[in-house]
Amino acid sequence: MPTPGQLMFARRLGPTARLLIWLLIGVSCVVIDVRFQALEGLRSGFSLLLQPVRQVLRAPGDVATELSGFFTRHRQLQKERDALLAERARLAVGVNTAKELTRENAELRALLQLQARPGQRTVRAALLYRGHDWFAQRITLDQGATAGLRSGLPVVDARGLVGQVHRVYPGSSEVTLVSSPEQLTPVFVERTGQRGLAAGSGQGRLVLRYMPAQTDIRPGDRLLTSGIDRVYPAGIPVARVNRVSRSQANPYLRVECLPMAGLDRSRAVLVVVAEPQVTKP
């Protein structure tokens, strides 16, 4: 039986009726909002309330975009760094090549300024390699018997005496450096004219032998070939005095000298060849 206050024959609205009612309400809200903007405040309130939700939902996409941009920029920076390193290496090679060419040109210009004396001619030669025996103090040139070279000829560079031709082959020749213990070079002191005998020490240096203790010789003096041996032309720079030592027990000075020529550092040298003088009747 129905309870007090309950209609006995009441009927509920069916689904179709409820749908029609909600559609009518929705259409009415749309018309009112379009016509009078009545729901603008409600829309703004919902937008403000949903702003944190939108930020949270957009965060994964923003993070993904930022990470993608970071890795893209990182790869681009790596490529630019590699390109800059390659460019720096190329420029370094170019600078080293330019320096080497400048040095060779300076040597060649200095050699061209050397004038052959009457009765002599010069043969230009280039250093091929240092001798296999380091202690032999020898170098090999790219000119030999075919260029008119023979044993005993002096070899000079733009700064001074390099050595003497030791062995000649058809297309190359060996030169014993002036610093070799096998070499003895008659010299004189440019400042005083004092003569002496320079001997190689085998360590890239020379020693001036048999100089009396009272000889006027100082560090910095230049030693030139005297020419009395008729092997080396007179006046070729040989060495510069580096140290002068005196000893109470030795009547001679200990004079150490440094060669003025580039020795094995010179790329271009001249071989001085004496030519017989032809006298006219």
Provide a descriptive summary of the structure in words.
It is a single chain. The protein has 281 residues and is α+β, with helices and mostly antiparallel strands. The longest helix has 73 residues, at 40-112. The protein has helices at 15-36, 40-112; strands spanning 120-130, 138-141, 154-156, 161-168, 173-177, 184-189, 195-200, 206-209, 222-225, 237-245, 254-259, 268-274. A hairpin with a 5-residue loop joins strand 6 and strand 7. It has 2 helices and 12 strands. The chain has a 6-stranded antiparallel β-barrel. A 6-stranded antiparallel barrel has the order 6-7-8-11-10-9. It folds into 2 domains: 16-113; 120-274, Rod shape-determining protein MreC, domain 1 (Thrombin, subunit H).
Features:
6-stranded antiparallel beta barrel, alpha+beta, Thrombin, subunit H, 12 strands, 281 residues, 6-stranded antiparallel β-barrel, 2 helices
How far apart are the first and last residues' alpha carbons, in Å? Answer: 170 Å
How much is the average pLDDT? 80
Assign the CATH superfamily of the largest domain.
Answer: Rod shape-determining protein MreC, domain 1
C-alpha geometry: rod-shaped
Q: At the third CATH level, what is the topology name of the largest domain? A: Thrombin, subunit H
**Fraction of residues in helix:** 25-40%
Précis, in short:
The chain has 281 residues and is of the alpha+beta class. 34% of the residues lie in helices and 26% in strands.
Please specify the SSE layout and strand pairing.
Elements: H1 15-36, H2 40-112, E1 120-130, E2 138-141, E3 154-156, E4 161-168, E5 173-177, E6 184-189, E7 195-200, E8 206-209, E9 222-225, E10 237-245, E11 254-259, E12 268-274
Antiparallel strand pairs: 1-2, 1-12, 2-5, 3-4, 3-12, 4-5, 6-7, 6-9, 7-8, 8-11, 9-10, 10-11
